[in-house]
From TrEMBL:
Annotated Pfam families: Phosphodiest (PF01663)
Domain of life: Eukaryota
CDD domains, sorted: Enpp (cd16018)
Signal peptide: 1-17
Protein keywords: Signal
Keyword Signal: yes
Cited InterPro entries: Alkaline_phosphatase_core_sf (IPR017850), Phosphodiest/P_Trfase (IPR002591)
Name of the protein described by the UniProt record: Ectonucleotide pyrophosphatase/phosphodiesterase member 7
Length: 451
């Protein structure tokens, strides 16, 4: 009787992972900035391929709008759409003073990030876990006075491409997991975004950078093994957005606001322009209709919306920080392109395939060799909370959208039940077990919530 129970528990703990060890599994969330879903199609990526065999690969994932770095990363950490978490742009701005801060400076503006939504580090720590973050957007800020227990913010003018530094940072994070017993860490790499912007997503330079990412994925998995973490550590690798090529040439009809008939910068009291495809405008009092009517329909590749009329799927309307008029261009175009020289851009509609990031996951919680369909990145947050065994905050994501990637408790319980039935039958036929033993065994296991 007892040996049968222990055998089943032993077997279950090997197979089930999550339900038996709930709370004991660790999780590393990695973002490779701007890694588009199909970047592995034209480059040899042995390590990413191996990760797909050992774990789960999604066809692609859908980021929230606005498809730029800080807003989409904060969605990964919170499971909320951008209008709900409030980090609506890479740049902090004040429409009264006209002041703006760069992406890097904005990392240090607490009021910008801490706008009512808690990132997973803080939630995990409040529930007794230990969390860390390395270079992940949002790391520098505090949230209701709290920060991630272990954290590292990159210095200004950081070289985001340095492969040696990528390996050192990997080992540092693995040390945190092993030596500080951290449960969750988020880690950020600033490529292939930089290379995609500078040379374009179809360039040989981008393909070389994808090889560097792939080597690093190999290094991450080796380092996991060398730190003795393979059986405990789950690794999710994804990105914030994709990248698309910008058209150039004399025949191209650029979208330049100052050349649009009826549009006058005098009618606008604040604007956020020259940021890839997107723009935001605050018209002066009484000038909303004038500005809107001048811009709407002014160019076949320019989208112009009043905030309250934004398309539903963008979830980019219901927030006081969003200015009254929102503009964006179709892929290939930028807004006020005369002032912009990047060959690749992002920030477009999140329905555009070129804006979709990749997604891979491996570890004891995940199925092996499973390819799944696309899902929205808001659903990564409830998945992470489930793996860590913590209660999520209010989010826009649903575990049901990502749970099929997991060796779920339901699967485990079902196969454990099958195992018990098989074992009992074996013992029945060998004459060593009577019906009473079977009942006792099942009752006992139900006490353990295994069946
Ligand atoms: C089954 O139960 C009987 C009493 O009901 C007990 O004598 C016997 O040792 C049990 N067998 C096993 C394999 O546990
Ligand atoms: C913008 O600046 C003005 C003037 O300093 C200030 O009153 C206001 O609170 C600021 N708004 C935000 C959102 O920081
Ligand atoms: C969010 O920020 C806005 C200003 O941008 C502020 O008015 C509002 O009170 C903040 N909300 C929370 C919950 O911090
Ligand atoms: C790359 O990083 C390594 C390790 O941190 C450092 O020693 C080296 O100077 C860096 N190289 C460049 C070009 O930044
Ligand atoms: C990972 O380890 C394997 C086997 O030890 C080795 O062949 C491979 O080069 C290592 N990869 C990296 C990126 O360190
Ligand atoms: Zn980015």
């Amino acid at each position: 009787m007892l040996w049968a129970v222990s055998l089943c528990i032993l077997w279950a703990s090997f197979t089930l992972g999550v339900p038996v060890n709930r709370g004991r599994q660790k999780l590393l969330l990695i973002s490779f900035d701007g890694f588009r879903w199909d970047y592995d199609h034209d480059v040899d990526t042995p390590n990413l391929d191996q990760m797909a065999i050992d774990g789960v690969k999604a066809h692609y994932v859908t980021p929230p709008y606005i498809t730029v770095t800080s807003p989409t990363h904060f969605t990964l950490l919170t499971g909320r759409y951008v209008e709900n978490h409030g980090v609506i742009h890479n740049m902090w701005f004040n429409t009264t003073t006209m002041e703006k801060k760069s992406y890097y400076q904005t990392q240090f503006v607490n009021e910008w990030w801490d706008n009512g939504t808690l990132p997973i580090w803080i939630t995990a720590q409040r529930q007794g876990l230990k969390a860390g973050s390395l270079h992940f957007p949002g790391t520098a800020s505090s949230y209701q006075g709290q920060v991630a227990m272990m954290r590292e913010v990159e210095p200004t003018r950081y070289n985001y491409k340095n492969e040696t530094a990528w390996y050192e940072n990997t080992d540092k994070v693995m040390d945190w997991f092993r030596d500080q017993d951290l449960d969750f860490v988020s880690m950020y790499f600033g490529e292939p975004d930089g290379t995609g912007h500078r040379y374009g997503p179809d360039s040989p330079e981008r393909r070389e950078m994808v090889k560097q990412v792939d080597r690093t994925v190999g290094y991450i998995r080796n380092s996991t093994e060398n730190h003795g973490l393979t059986k405990q550590l789950n690794i999710i690798i994804t990105a914030d957005h994709g990248m698309t090529s910008i058209y150039r040439g004399a025949q191209l009809e650029e979208i330049t606001l100052s050349k649009i008939p009826g549009f006058n910068f005098q009618d606008v009291s604040f604007h956020l322009l020259d940021y890839g495809p997107s723009g935001m405008l605050l018209p002066k009092p009484g000038k909303l209709e004038t500005v809107y009517n001048a811009l709407k329909g002014a160019h076949p590749h320019l989208h112009v919306y009043k905030k309250e009329e934004m398309p539903e799927h963008l979830h980019f309307s219901n927030n006081d920080r969003i200015p009254p008029i929102i503009l964006w261009t179709d892929p290939g175009y930028v807004l006020n392109g005369v002032l912009q020289f990047n060959k690749g851009e992002h920030g477009f509609d999140n329905q555009e395939m070129d804006m979709k990031p990749f997604f891979r996951a491996v570890g004891p919680a995940f199925h092996k060799n499973l390819e799944v369909g696309p899902f929205e990145t808001v659903n990564i947050y409830p998945l992470m909370c489930h793996i860590l065994g913590i209660q999520p905050e209010l989010s826009d994501g649903h575990l049901s959208a990502t749970q099929h990637m997991l060796v779920t408790s339901a699967d485990g319980e079902f196969s454990c039940l099958c195992f018990i039935i098989q074992l009992s039958r074996l013992l029945f036929t060998s004459g060593g077990l009577q019906y009473s033993n079977y009942t006792v065994l099942v009752t006992f296991l139900m006490g353990f919530k295994l069946v």
